[in-house]
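User: tokens in, sequence out, please.
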């Protein structure tokens, strides 16, 4: 896997933060729970279940890779693009009434905005779903841009999406904070040379996040919020 060649000799725990990149699913919103529900419903109709083992094998991957992974795991004959479309259709039906921000998200956005830092979304979800989720939550206008796996050559766990995020923000990756919930996404942030923070949920809490700089139990963790307030002032 290629990594970012910028100078990261300064301790990540001391670098100033000049931009913030958010993952979307499971980090900003409860969409991982909704995906579980939808995919289990789809697989039950095909004689299978969306097990925890299957979920961990595809969590954080770009949509097409995740769909192919599900098809191979279950031995299905479905076209991956059609499987994705079916999932998005079912998600669109429940999103308006079920989508919720993860604990601490709104407070963290206010801290970042008060500091005057640019922020973006970098997600493995499709552009349509990412825009739909952000718009449904009323948060789209609070982000400078949204990147998806379709905007880069290689999706997570490769660093491309976070390297591109840093480029668009006009900052070195070493001074960009990446917030992730999945192991695959965390590896992408670390490979980019970004200051990488893992926020595992119940979906992935048992995984070993060996490459991250910080790990917190939620976006509401006081240490994460205080770190942002302090290190934004150092930029």
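Assistant: Sequence out:
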């Amino acid at each position: 896997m290629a990594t970012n060649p910028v100078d990261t000799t300064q301790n990540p725990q001391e670098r100033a933060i000049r931009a913030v990149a958010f993952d979307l699913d499971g980090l900003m919103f409860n969409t991982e729970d909704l995906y579980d529900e939808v995919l289990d419903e789809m697989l039950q109709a095909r004689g299978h279940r969306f097990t925890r083992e299957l979920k961990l094998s595809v969590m954080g991957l770009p949509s097409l890779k995740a769909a192919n992974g599900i098809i191979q795991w279950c031995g299905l004959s479905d076209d991956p693009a059609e499987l994705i479309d079916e999932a998005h259709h079912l998600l669109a039906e429940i999103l308006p009434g079920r989508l919720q921000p993860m604990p601490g998200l709104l407070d963290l956005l206010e801290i970042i905005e008060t500091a005057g830092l640019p922020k973006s979304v970098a997600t493995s979800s499709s552009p349509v779903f990412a825009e739909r989720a952000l718009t449904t939550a009323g948060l789209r206008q609070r982000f400078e841009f949204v990147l998806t796996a379709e905007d880069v050559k290689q999706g997570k766990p490769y660093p491309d999406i976070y390297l591109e995020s840093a480029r668009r923000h006009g900052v070195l990756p070493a001074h960009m904070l990446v917030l992730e919930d999945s192991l695959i996404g965390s590896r992408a942030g670390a490979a980019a040379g970004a200051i990488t923070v893992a926020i595992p949920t119940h979906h992935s809490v048992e995984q070993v996040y060996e490459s991250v700089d910080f790990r917190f139990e939620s976006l509401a963790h006081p240490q994460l919020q205080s770190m942002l307030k302090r290190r934004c002032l150092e930029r």
